[in-house]
Amino acid sequence: MNKVSGFSKLSKLEKINYLVDEVLEGRPSVNKLIKSFWHDDKEEQQVFDDFSENTLTNFYFPYGVAPNVLLNDELLCVPMVIEESSVVAAAAKSAKFWMDRGGFKSEVISLNKIGQVHFIWEGATSKIETLFNEVKDELLDSVKSLTRNMEKRGGGLLDIKLVDRTFDEPGYYQIWCEFNTCDAMGANFINSVLESLAKNFADIVESKFDGADSEIQIVMAILSNYTPDCRVKAWVECHVDDLEDPSHGMSGREFAEKFSRAVRIAKIDVNRATTHNKGIFNGIDSVVLATGNDFRAVEACGHTWACRDGSYRGLTDVSIVNDIFRFKLELPLSLGTVGGLTSLHPLAKVSLDMLGRPSAAKLMEISATIGLAQNFSALRSLTTTGIQKGHMKMHLMNILNQLEATDAEKEIVRNKFEDEIISFGGIREFLSGLRNYQ
Ligand code: MEV
Hints:
By secondary structure, the chain is α+β, with helices and mostly antiparallel strands. It has four domains: 7-49, no CATH class; 68-108 and 233-385, 3-hydroxy-3-methylglutaryl-coenzyme A Reductase, Chain A, domain 2, CATH 3.90.770.10; 113-223, Hydroxymethylglutaryl-CoA reductase, class I/II, NAD/NADP-binding domain (Alpha-Beta Plaits, 2-Layer Sandwich), CATH 3.30.70.420; 391-437. It is built from 15 helices and ten strands. The strands form three sheets. The chain has a four-stranded antiparallel beta sheet with strand order 3-8-10-9. A four-stranded antiparallel beta sheet has the order 5-6-4-7. Strands 1-2 form a two-stranded antiparallel ribbon. The chain binds (R)-mevalonate. Residues 84, 275-276, 278-279, 282, 378, 382, 387 line the site of (R)-mevalonate. Residues 84, 275-276, 278-279, 282, 378, 382, 387 line the site of (R)-mevalonate (MEV).
Protein backbone atom coordinates (compact mmCIF):
# COMPACT_ATOMS: atom_id res chain seq x y z
CA MET A 1 0.00 0.00 0.00
CA ASN A 2 1.36 3.43 -0.94
CA LYS A 3 1.21 6.33 1.49
CA VAL A 4 -1.42 8.91 0.62
CA SER A 5 -1.11 12.62 1.22
CA GLY A 6 -3.95 15.13 1.32
CA PHE A 7 -6.50 12.31 1.63
CA SER A 8 -9.14 14.53 3.21
CA LYS A 9 -8.97 16.85 0.19
CA LEU A 10 -9.75 14.05 -2.30
CA SER A 11 -13.29 13.76 -3.64
CA LYS A 12 -15.43 10.92 -2.34
CA LEU A 13 -14.89 8.92 -5.52
CA GLU A 14 -11.13 9.44 -5.32
CA LYS A 15 -11.15 8.26 -1.72
CA ILE A 16 -13.05 5.11 -2.68
CA ASN A 17 -10.64 4.49 -5.55
CA TYR A 18 -7.68 4.85 -3.19
CA LEU A 19 -9.26 2.36 -0.81
CA VAL A 20 -10.05 -0.16 -3.52
CA ASP A 21 -6.80 0.16 -5.46
CA GLU A 22 -4.30 0.66 -2.66
CA VAL A 23 -5.80 -0.90 0.48
CA LEU A 24 -7.99 -3.67 -0.91
CA GLU A 25 -5.67 -4.40 -3.81
CA GLY A 26 -8.16 -3.80 -6.59
CA ARG A 27 -11.39 -5.52 -5.66
CA PRO A 28 -13.87 -3.68 -7.92
CA SER A 29 -16.79 -5.48 -6.26
CA VAL A 30 -16.05 -3.47 -3.10
CA ASN A 31 -16.31 -0.27 -5.10
CA LYS A 32 -19.80 -1.29 -6.19
CA LEU A 33 -20.74 -2.49 -2.72
CA ILE A 34 -19.68 0.77 -1.06
CA LYS A 35 -21.71 2.80 -3.53
CA SER A 36 -24.75 0.56 -3.11
CA PHE A 37 -25.11 1.91 0.44
CA TRP A 38 -25.32 5.53 -0.70
CA HIS A 39 -28.64 7.27 -0.16
CA ASP A 40 -30.68 7.70 -3.37
CA ASP A 41 -31.26 11.31 -2.52
CA LYS A 42 -28.04 13.29 -2.97
CA GLU A 43 -29.03 15.97 -0.47
CA GLU A 44 -29.84 13.40 2.22
CA GLN A 45 -26.51 11.71 1.52
CA GLN A 46 -24.70 15.01 1.96
CA VAL A 47 -26.24 15.32 5.45
CA PHE A 48 -24.75 11.96 6.40
CA ASP A 49 -21.41 12.73 4.77
CA ASP A 50 -21.13 15.89 6.80
CA PHE A 51 -21.60 14.17 10.18
CA SER A 52 -18.05 12.91 10.01
CA GLU A 53 -14.86 13.08 7.96
CA ASN A 54 -13.41 11.07 5.08
CA THR A 55 -16.88 9.62 4.56
CA LEU A 56 -17.22 6.97 1.86
CA THR A 57 -20.66 5.51 2.44
CA ASN A 58 -23.18 4.63 5.15
CA PHE A 59 -22.98 1.73 7.57
CA TYR A 60 -26.46 0.34 8.23
CA PHE A 61 -27.75 -0.72 11.63
CA PRO A 62 -31.22 -2.15 12.21
CA TYR A 63 -33.79 0.33 13.48
CA GLY A 64 -36.62 -1.32 15.44
CA VAL A 65 -39.17 -0.50 18.11
CA ALA A 66 -40.27 -1.88 21.45
CA PRO A 67 -44.04 -1.33 21.56
CA ASN A 68 -46.32 -1.29 24.63
CA VAL A 69 -43.87 0.35 27.01
CA LEU A 70 -46.07 1.66 29.81
CA LEU A 71 -44.02 4.34 31.54
CA ASN A 72 -45.44 6.63 34.22
CA ASP A 73 -48.92 5.57 33.01
CA GLU A 74 -48.20 6.63 29.43
CA LEU A 75 -48.02 4.11 26.61
CA LEU A 76 -44.92 4.49 24.45
CA CYS A 77 -43.46 2.87 21.38
CA VAL A 78 -39.71 3.14 21.88
CA PRO A 79 -37.24 3.28 18.97
CA MET A 80 -34.14 1.12 19.28
CA VAL A 81 -31.08 0.95 17.04
CA ILE A 82 -28.99 -2.14 17.68
CA GLU A 83 -27.22 -4.80 15.65
CA GLU A 84 -27.53 -7.59 18.24
CA SER A 85 -30.40 -10.05 17.90
CA SER A 86 -32.67 -10.59 20.94
CA VAL A 87 -32.23 -7.13 22.46
CA VAL A 88 -35.36 -5.55 20.99
CA ALA A 89 -37.32 -8.75 21.57
CA ALA A 90 -36.17 -8.80 25.21
CA ALA A 91 -37.22 -5.19 25.76
CA ALA A 92 -40.59 -5.83 24.14
CA LYS A 93 -41.10 -8.96 26.24
CA SER A 94 -40.23 -7.13 29.44
CA ALA A 95 -42.57 -4.28 28.47
CA LYS A 96 -45.40 -6.77 27.92
CA PHE A 97 -44.71 -8.45 31.26
CA TRP A 98 -44.72 -5.18 33.24
CA MET A 99 -47.68 -3.74 31.33
CA ASP A 100 -49.88 -6.16 33.30
CA ARG A 101 -48.20 -5.25 36.58
CA GLY A 102 -48.51 -1.46 36.64
CA GLY A 103 -45.84 -0.64 34.10
CA PHE A 104 -42.52 1.11 34.60
CA LYS A 105 -41.97 4.19 36.73
CA SER A 106 -39.17 6.64 36.22
CA GLU A 107 -38.08 9.95 37.68
CA VAL A 108 -35.27 12.40 37.02
CA ILE A 109 -33.33 13.13 40.20
CA SER A 110 -31.28 16.11 39.01
CA LEU A 111 -30.13 17.72 35.77
CA ASN A 112 -26.81 19.44 36.43
CA LYS A 113 -23.69 18.88 34.36
CA ILE A 114 -20.05 19.59 35.05
CA GLY A 115 -17.21 21.29 33.21
CA GLN A 116 -13.68 22.01 34.37
CA VAL A 117 -10.91 24.44 33.58
CA HIS A 118 -7.70 22.64 34.58
CA PHE A 119 -4.85 25.02 35.28
CA ILE A 120 -1.44 25.22 36.93
CA TRP A 121 -0.43 28.11 39.16
CA GLU A 122 2.61 27.86 41.42
CA GLY A 123 1.96 30.65 43.98
CA ALA A 124 0.45 30.43 47.49
CA THR A 125 -2.95 28.73 47.53
CA SER A 126 -4.52 31.39 49.75
CA LYS A 127 -3.59 34.06 47.22
CA ILE A 128 -5.33 32.40 44.24
CA GLU A 129 -8.33 31.57 46.44
CA THR A 130 -8.69 35.20 47.49
CA LEU A 131 -8.38 36.40 43.91
CA PHE A 132 -10.91 33.84 42.67
CA ASN A 133 -13.48 34.89 45.27
CA GLU A 134 -12.92 38.57 44.43
CA VAL A 135 -13.40 38.08 40.68
CA LYS A 136 -16.00 35.31 40.70
CA ASP A 137 -18.91 37.61 39.74
CA GLU A 138 -16.78 39.34 37.13
CA LEU A 139 -15.95 35.94 35.64
CA LEU A 140 -19.60 34.89 35.58
CA ASP A 141 -20.46 38.18 33.88
CA SER A 142 -17.65 37.73 31.38
CA VAL A 143 -19.45 34.78 29.73
CA LYS A 144 -22.96 36.29 29.76
CA SER A 145 -23.00 36.70 25.99
CA LEU A 146 -22.60 32.92 25.74
CA THR A 147 -24.97 31.95 28.56
CA ARG A 148 -27.81 34.44 27.99
CA ASN A 149 -29.85 32.30 25.59
CA MET A 150 -29.54 29.21 27.75
CA GLU A 151 -30.61 31.30 30.76
CA LYS A 152 -33.73 32.40 28.86
CA ARG A 153 -34.58 28.72 28.47
CA GLY A 154 -34.16 28.15 32.22
CA GLY A 155 -30.57 26.90 32.29
CA GLY A 156 -27.09 28.33 32.02
CA LEU A 157 -23.91 28.41 34.06
CA LEU A 158 -25.17 27.80 37.60
CA ASP A 159 -22.04 28.20 39.69
CA ILE A 160 -18.27 28.18 39.58
CA LYS A 161 -15.82 27.34 42.32
CA LEU A 162 -12.08 26.93 42.70
CA VAL A 163 -10.88 23.42 43.50
CA ASP A 164 -7.42 22.94 45.01
CA ARG A 165 -5.79 19.74 43.68
CA THR A 166 -2.24 20.72 44.60
CA PHE A 167 -1.93 17.65 46.85
CA ASP A 168 -2.37 15.45 43.78
CA GLU A 169 -0.24 17.46 41.33
CA PRO A 170 1.97 20.47 42.14
CA GLY A 171 0.21 23.73 41.31
CA TYR A 172 -2.91 22.00 39.97
CA TYR A 173 -6.29 23.73 40.37
CA GLN A 174 -9.63 23.55 38.66
CA ILE A 175 -12.37 26.03 38.03
CA TRP A 176 -15.27 23.68 38.65
CA CYS A 177 -18.38 24.75 36.75
CA GLU A 178 -21.96 23.55 37.07
CA PHE A 179 -24.34 23.87 34.15
CA ASN A 180 -27.94 23.24 33.27
CA THR A 181 -28.24 22.80 29.53
CA CYS A 182 -32.04 22.31 29.43
CA ASP A 183 -33.00 20.05 26.53
CA ALA A 184 -29.60 20.18 24.86
CA MET A 185 -26.88 17.65 25.56
CA GLY A 186 -24.88 20.85 25.75
CA ALA A 187 -21.32 19.77 25.01
CA ASN A 188 -20.63 22.68 22.64
CA PHE A 189 -22.29 25.19 24.95
CA ILE A 190 -20.33 23.95 27.97
CA ASN A 191 -17.00 23.81 26.15
CA SER A 192 -17.41 27.31 24.67
CA VAL A 193 -18.20 28.76 28.09
CA LEU A 194 -15.26 26.92 29.67
CA GLU A 195 -12.77 28.10 27.05
CA SER A 196 -13.95 31.66 27.46
CA LEU A 197 -13.81 31.43 31.27
CA ALA A 198 -10.31 29.97 31.07
CA LYS A 199 -9.04 32.81 28.91
CA ASN A 200 -10.73 35.48 31.02
CA PHE A 201 -9.36 34.02 34.25
CA ALA A 202 -5.85 33.75 32.81
CA ASP A 203 -6.07 37.41 31.75
CA ILE A 204 -7.14 38.41 35.25
CA VAL A 205 -4.31 36.46 36.90
CA GLU A 206 -1.76 37.97 34.52
CA SER A 207 -3.01 41.49 35.13
CA LYS A 208 -3.51 41.30 38.91
CA PHE A 209 -0.31 39.54 39.94
CA ASP A 210 3.36 40.38 39.39
CA GLY A 211 6.43 38.27 38.69
CA ALA A 212 6.12 34.48 38.93
CA ASP A 213 2.58 34.80 40.36
CA SER A 214 1.35 36.26 37.10
CA GLU A 215 2.20 33.02 35.33
CA ILE A 216 -0.70 30.65 34.81
CA GLN A 217 -0.92 27.66 32.51
CA ILE A 218 -4.36 26.69 31.30
CA VAL A 219 -3.88 22.98 30.70
CA MET A 220 -7.34 22.40 29.24
CA ALA A 221 -10.98 23.40 29.46
CA ILE A 222 -13.51 20.65 28.84
CA LEU A 223 -16.83 19.28 30.03
CA SER A 224 -16.83 16.16 32.17
CA ASN A 225 -18.75 13.22 30.79
CA TYR A 226 -19.19 12.06 34.36
CA THR A 227 -22.48 13.64 35.36
CA PRO A 228 -23.53 12.13 38.71
CA ASP A 229 -25.87 15.10 39.20
CA CYS A 230 -27.62 14.52 35.91
CA ARG A 231 -29.27 11.37 37.14
CA VAL A 232 -32.40 9.32 36.64
CA LYS A 233 -34.02 6.28 38.21
CA ALA A 234 -36.43 3.76 36.75
CA TRP A 235 -38.17 0.99 38.61
CA VAL A 236 -40.85 -1.67 38.59
CA GLU A 237 -42.64 -3.28 41.49
CA CYS A 238 -45.28 -5.87 42.15
CA HIS A 239 -46.37 -8.46 44.71
CA VAL A 240 -44.05 -11.48 44.59
CA ASP A 241 -47.00 -13.75 43.77
CA ASP A 242 -47.53 -11.78 40.58
CA LEU A 243 -44.14 -12.97 39.34
CA GLU A 244 -45.39 -16.53 39.11
CA ASP A 245 -44.98 -18.06 35.67
CA PRO A 246 -46.04 -21.69 35.19
CA SER A 247 -43.43 -22.22 32.46
CA HIS A 248 -40.62 -21.70 35.00
CA GLY A 249 -41.78 -24.28 37.47
CA MET A 250 -41.05 -21.78 40.27
CA SER A 251 -43.39 -19.91 42.56
CA GLY A 252 -43.37 -16.13 42.31
CA ARG A 253 -41.41 -15.92 45.58
CA GLU A 254 -38.85 -18.51 44.49
CA PHE A 255 -38.32 -16.62 41.25
CA ALA A 256 -38.04 -13.27 43.09
CA GLU A 257 -35.42 -14.70 45.43
CA LYS A 258 -33.37 -16.32 42.69
CA PHE A 259 -33.59 -13.15 40.60
CA SER A 260 -32.47 -11.07 43.61
CA ARG A 261 -29.51 -13.36 44.10
CA ALA A 262 -28.47 -12.74 40.48
CA VAL A 263 -28.65 -8.99 41.08
CA ARG A 264 -26.57 -9.33 44.25
CA ILE A 265 -23.96 -11.43 42.42
CA ALA A 266 -23.54 -8.53 39.97
CA LYS A 267 -22.94 -6.29 42.99
CA ILE A 268 -20.10 -8.41 44.36
CA ASP A 269 -18.39 -9.98 41.36
CA VAL A 270 -16.74 -7.71 38.81
CA ASN A 271 -16.87 -10.26 35.99
CA ARG A 272 -20.58 -10.70 36.34
CA ALA A 273 -21.09 -6.96 36.96
CA THR A 274 -19.51 -6.14 33.60
CA THR A 275 -21.83 -8.48 31.68
CA HIS A 276 -24.84 -7.41 33.76
CA ASN A 277 -24.16 -3.76 32.91
CA LYS A 278 -23.41 -4.59 29.28
CA GLY A 279 -26.95 -5.95 29.06
CA ILE A 280 -28.33 -2.74 30.61
CA PHE A 281 -26.44 -0.69 28.03
CA ASN A 282 -27.80 -2.91 25.25
CA GLY A 283 -31.09 -1.26 26.07
CA ILE A 284 -29.92 2.24 26.91
CA ASP A 285 -27.52 2.58 23.97
CA SER A 286 -30.10 1.46 21.47
CA VAL A 287 -32.44 4.30 22.50
CA VAL A 288 -29.53 6.73 22.75
CA LEU A 289 -28.46 5.83 19.20
CA ALA A 290 -32.00 5.93 17.80
CA THR A 291 -32.44 9.46 19.14
CA GLY A 292 -29.09 10.73 17.82
CA ASN A 293 -27.39 10.96 21.20
CA ASP A 294 -23.82 10.17 22.18
CA PHE A 295 -23.67 6.56 23.38
CA ARG A 296 -19.93 6.73 24.19
CA ALA A 297 -20.54 9.56 26.64
CA VAL A 298 -23.47 7.69 28.18
CA GLU A 299 -21.50 4.47 28.60
CA ALA A 300 -18.35 6.13 29.95
CA CYS A 301 -20.46 7.93 32.51
CA GLY A 302 -22.46 4.85 33.47
CA HIS A 303 -19.36 2.76 34.02
CA THR A 304 -17.74 5.44 36.16
CA TRP A 305 -20.92 5.59 38.24
CA ALA A 306 -20.85 1.78 38.50
CA CYS A 307 -17.54 2.00 40.37
CA ARG A 308 -18.24 5.12 42.43
CA ASP A 309 -17.44 3.35 45.71
CA GLY A 310 -14.13 2.00 44.39
CA SER A 311 -15.39 -1.35 43.08
CA TYR A 312 -17.18 -1.89 39.79
CA ARG A 313 -20.72 -3.10 40.54
CA GLY A 314 -23.98 -3.95 38.80
CA LEU A 315 -26.14 -0.89 38.20
CA THR A 316 -29.49 -2.34 39.25
CA ASP A 317 -30.86 -2.90 42.76
CA VAL A 318 -33.53 -5.22 44.01
CA SER A 319 -35.52 -5.58 47.21
CA ILE A 320 -38.31 -7.77 48.52
CA VAL A 321 -40.03 -6.00 51.41
CA ASN A 322 -43.43 -7.05 52.76
CA ASP A 323 -43.81 -9.36 49.75
CA ILE A 324 -43.31 -6.47 47.34
CA PHE A 325 -40.63 -7.11 44.72
CA ARG A 326 -38.97 -3.86 43.64
CA PHE A 327 -36.35 -3.69 40.90
CA LYS A 328 -34.57 -0.41 40.20
CA LEU A 329 -31.96 1.13 37.93
CA GLU A 330 -30.42 4.45 38.90
CA LEU A 331 -27.66 6.06 36.87
CA PRO A 332 -26.41 9.34 35.42
CA LEU A 333 -27.48 9.94 31.82
CA SER A 334 -26.71 13.08 29.90
CA LEU A 335 -28.99 13.35 26.86
CA GLY A 336 -30.36 15.96 24.55
CA THR A 337 -33.51 16.30 22.48
CA VAL A 338 -32.60 19.52 20.68
CA GLY A 339 -29.54 20.46 18.68
CA GLY A 340 -26.71 18.29 17.40
CA LEU A 341 -27.56 15.06 15.63
CA THR A 342 -31.04 15.02 17.20
CA SER A 343 -32.11 17.66 14.71
CA LEU A 344 -29.95 16.55 11.77
CA HIS A 345 -30.37 12.79 11.49
CA PRO A 346 -33.68 12.17 9.70
CA LEU A 347 -34.38 8.99 11.68
CA ALA A 348 -33.41 10.58 15.00
CA LYS A 349 -36.14 13.11 14.25
CA VAL A 350 -38.60 10.26 13.60
CA SER A 351 -37.55 8.66 16.91
CA LEU A 352 -38.22 11.86 18.81
CA ASP A 353 -41.58 12.27 17.05
CA MET A 354 -42.40 8.70 18.01
CA LEU A 355 -41.74 9.59 21.64
CA GLY A 356 -43.88 12.73 21.44
CA ARG A 357 -40.96 15.19 21.17
CA PRO A 358 -39.80 14.56 24.75
CA SER A 359 -37.75 16.87 26.94
CA ALA A 360 -34.22 15.70 27.69
CA ALA A 361 -35.47 14.71 31.16
CA LYS A 362 -38.19 12.52 29.70
CA LEU A 363 -35.74 10.92 27.29
CA MET A 364 -33.54 10.11 30.29
CA GLU A 365 -36.54 8.37 31.89
CA ILE A 366 -37.32 6.42 28.72
CA SER A 367 -33.72 5.32 28.18
CA ALA A 368 -33.29 4.22 31.79
CA THR A 369 -36.56 2.30 31.53
CA ILE A 370 -35.36 0.38 28.48
CA GLY A 371 -32.09 -0.36 30.32
CA LEU A 372 -34.08 -1.73 33.24
CA ALA A 373 -36.43 -3.67 30.94
CA GLN A 374 -33.42 -5.20 29.24
CA ASN A 375 -31.80 -6.23 32.50
CA PHE A 376 -35.07 -7.70 33.76
CA SER A 377 -35.44 -9.84 30.64
CA ALA A 378 -31.81 -10.96 30.71
CA LEU A 379 -31.93 -11.96 34.39
CA ARG A 380 -35.31 -13.59 33.97
CA SER A 381 -33.95 -15.79 31.19
CA LEU A 382 -30.66 -16.43 32.96
CA THR A 383 -32.34 -17.54 36.18
CA THR A 384 -34.99 -19.69 34.49
CA THR A 385 -34.51 -21.16 31.00
CA GLY A 386 -30.93 -19.95 30.44
CA ILE A 387 -30.09 -17.25 27.93
CA GLN A 388 -29.35 -19.38 24.88
CA LYS A 389 -32.86 -20.69 24.35
CA GLY A 390 -34.32 -17.32 23.39
CA HIS A 391 -31.09 -15.82 22.15
CA MET A 392 -30.26 -18.51 19.61
CA LYS A 393 -33.81 -18.52 18.35
CA MET A 394 -33.41 -14.84 17.53
CA HIS A 395 -29.93 -15.47 16.18
CA LEU A 396 -31.19 -18.25 13.88
CA MET A 397 -31.90 -15.82 11.04
CA ASN A 398 -28.30 -14.54 11.16
CA ILE A 399 -27.00 -18.10 10.98
CA LEU A 400 -29.30 -18.93 8.06
CA ASN A 401 -28.25 -15.79 6.23
CA GLN A 402 -24.60 -16.61 6.80
CA LEU A 403 -25.25 -20.06 5.32
CA GLU A 404 -27.07 -18.41 2.41
CA ALA A 405 -30.26 -20.37 3.04
CA THR A 406 -33.14 -19.85 0.64
CA ASP A 407 -36.58 -18.83 1.91
CA ALA A 408 -37.79 -22.41 1.57
CA GLU A 409 -34.79 -23.74 3.51
CA LYS A 410 -35.32 -21.12 6.22
CA GLU A 411 -38.90 -22.26 6.66
CA ILE A 412 -37.86 -25.93 6.97
CA VAL A 413 -35.08 -25.13 9.45
CA ARG A 414 -37.33 -22.89 11.56
CA ASN A 415 -39.92 -25.65 11.87
CA LYS A 416 -37.34 -28.35 12.56
CA PHE A 417 -35.57 -26.35 15.29
CA GLU A 418 -38.74 -24.99 16.93
CA ASP A 419 -38.06 -26.91 20.16
CA GLU A 420 -34.44 -27.90 19.63
CA ILE A 421 -31.15 -26.47 20.75
CA ILE A 422 -29.79 -24.15 18.07
CA SER A 423 -26.10 -24.00 17.24
CA PHE A 424 -24.24 -22.84 14.14
CA GLY A 425 -22.76 -26.33 13.64
CA GLY A 426 -26.13 -28.02 14.11
CA ILE A 427 -27.85 -25.78 11.58
CA ARG A 428 -25.00 -26.14 9.06
CA GLU A 429 -25.13 -29.92 9.35
CA PHE A 430 -28.90 -30.04 8.99
CA LEU A 431 -28.83 -27.69 6.02
CA SER A 432 -26.10 -29.62 4.27
CA GLY A 433 -28.09 -32.87 4.78
CA LEU A 434 -31.15 -31.13 3.38
CA ARG A 435 -29.25 -29.84 0.36
CA ASN A 436 -27.70 -33.25 -0.36
CA TYR A 437 -31.07 -34.91 -0.07
CA GLN A 438 -32.64 -32.39 -2.44
C1 MEV B 1 -25.93 -10.03 25.92
O1 MEV B 1 -25.69 -9.01 24.98
C2 MEV B 1 -26.31 -9.42 27.27
C3 MEV B 1 -26.42 -10.41 28.42
O2 MEV B 1 -25.25 -11.18 28.50
C4 MEV B 1 -26.65 -9.59 29.65
C5 MEV B 1 -26.57 -10.39 30.94
O3 MEV B 1 -25.91 -11.42 31.02
O4 MEV B 1 -27.16 -9.88 31.92
C6 MEV B 1 -27.56 -11.36 28.17
